[in-house]
């Protein structure tokens, strides 16, 4: 049985050697007559020495495979490319920075072997060492997306998981371009077992996710998995139309029945309403735009990534 370990790498020259050693340890302890490993490194257009390091590893180690991208396509694309290349019966994805502890792998393999689940996924129960504000926004995002979507996306779930072949094939069959893997993993279903671990800080280098990048990722996630925001626009529109109607009736009764007339023309309230409704319309247009934009991008049917170099099988 073959086990594929996929590592997306973007400017990871400092962490790669450390990770490779850790992976070799796992291989040493887990390899047996009927279990062997392949390591798949996906170089996501790194600008440092990542490429050289990977080539070096592949020269000395037959089980190291790689795909290089022609530019930075993002971690989602890197994971997809890795899964396409993986031939294993079990496939795992882990970060290059050791934040997904390879030491969990032996237990994960055992869990899959036992046959009681199809996916073993890691989840961090703490966000220790992460900026407070980032944790806050992350939590809010999970609350929001879980309320809006039919699928359940666990807070703290990482992309780190070991999957059976069927699961990988299911994920590959979703060939959408704007990928939000956390949602895709949940969407394909299968029996998932969670292993929990403390947050680990990256061994070297720095995070590639700025706040802005994460924010865009969050919008991607919501737009990719639910059309609830569109409904939100409908509800809001309905609510304000109703409000307007009640307002109208109120003034009508006041004028006809109670014969009270406004002697000051109500321009402040008018201004408020125009501004408010104007803002609302713009917001609805924005929401529509998000979806139309996605449709446009998907309709072009571009590939998810462009490889520039690949290891021979
Ligand atoms: N990564 C990638 N392409 C990118 C950004 C990140 O392949 O455009 C990889 C990165 O090399 C690492 C993993 O994705 O292996 C997670 O990235 P990072 O540690 O920067 O994210 P964080 O752990 O801070 O969320
Ligand atoms: Mg990291």
Principal-axes geometry comes out as elongated
* First and last CA, distance: 17 Å
CATH topology of the largest domain: Spore Coat Polysaccharide Biosynthesis Protein SpsA, Chain A
Strand order of the largest sheet: 7-5-6-4-1-2-3-8
Portion of residues in helices? 40-55%
Task: Explain briefly what this protein structure is.
The chain is α/β, with parallel strands linked by helices and 313 residues long. The protein is built from 10 helices and 8 strands. Residues 95, 97, 99, 202, 207 line the site of magnesium ion.
Structure commentary:
The chain has 313 residues and is an alpha/beta fold. It folds into two domains: 2-223 and 303-310, Spore Coat Polysaccharide Biosynthesis Protein SpsA, Chain A (Alpha-Beta Complex); 228-300. It is built from ten helices and eight strands. An eight-stranded mixed β-sheet has the order 7-5-6-4-1-2-3-8, sandwiched between helices. Strand 2 (36-43), helix 2 (50-60) and strand 3 (64-69) form a beta-alpha-beta unit. Helix 5 (132-148) packs parallel to helix 8 and helix 9 (228-256) runs antiparallel to helix 10 (267-300). The longest helix is centred in the C-terminal third of the chain and has 34 residues, at 267-300. The radius of gyration is 25 Å and the shape is elongated. The mean pLDDT is 85. Residues 8-10, 12, 44, 72, 74-75, 78, 95-97, 99, 202, 207-209 line the site of uridine-5'-diphosphate (UDP).
């Amino acid at each position: 049985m073959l086990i594929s370990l996929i590592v997306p790498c973007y400017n990871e020259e400092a962490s790669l050697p450390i990770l490779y050693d850790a992976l070799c340890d796992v291989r040493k302890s887990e390899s047996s007559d009927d279990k062997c490993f392949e390591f798949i490194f996906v170089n996501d257009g790194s600008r440092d020495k990542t490429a050289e390091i990977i080539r070096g590893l592949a020269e000395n180690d037959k089980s190291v495979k790689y795909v290089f991208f022609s530019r930075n396509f993002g971690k989602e694309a890197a994971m997809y490319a890795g899964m396409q290349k993986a031939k294993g019966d079990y496939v795992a994805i882990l970060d290059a920075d050791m934040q997904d502890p390879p030491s969990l792998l032996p237990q994960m393999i055992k869990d899959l072997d036992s046959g009681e689940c199809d996916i073993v996924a890691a989840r961090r129960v703490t966000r220790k060492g992460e900026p407070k504000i980032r944790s806050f926004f992350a939590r809010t995002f999970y609350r929001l997306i879980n309320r809006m979507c039919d699928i359940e996306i666990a807070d703290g779930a990482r992309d780190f998981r070991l999957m059976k072949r069927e699961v990988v094939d299911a994920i590959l069959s979703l060939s959408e371009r704007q990928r939000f893997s956390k949602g895709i993993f949940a969407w394909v279903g299968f029996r998932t077992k969670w292993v929990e671990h403390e947050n680990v800080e990256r061994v070297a280098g720095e995070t590639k996710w700025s706040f802005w990048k994460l924010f865009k990722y969050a919008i991607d996630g919501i737009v990719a998995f639910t059309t609830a925001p569109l409904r939100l626009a409908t509800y809001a529109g309905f609510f304000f139309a109703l409000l307007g109607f009640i307002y109208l009736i109120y003034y009508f009764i006041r004028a006809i029945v109670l014969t009270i007339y406004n002697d000051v023309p109500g321009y402040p309230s008018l201004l408020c309403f125009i501004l408010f409704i104007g803002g609302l319309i713009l917001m609805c247009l924005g929401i529509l735009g998000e979806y139309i934009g996605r449709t446009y991008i998907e309709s072009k049917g571009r590939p998810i990534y462009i490889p520039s170099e690949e290891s021979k099988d």
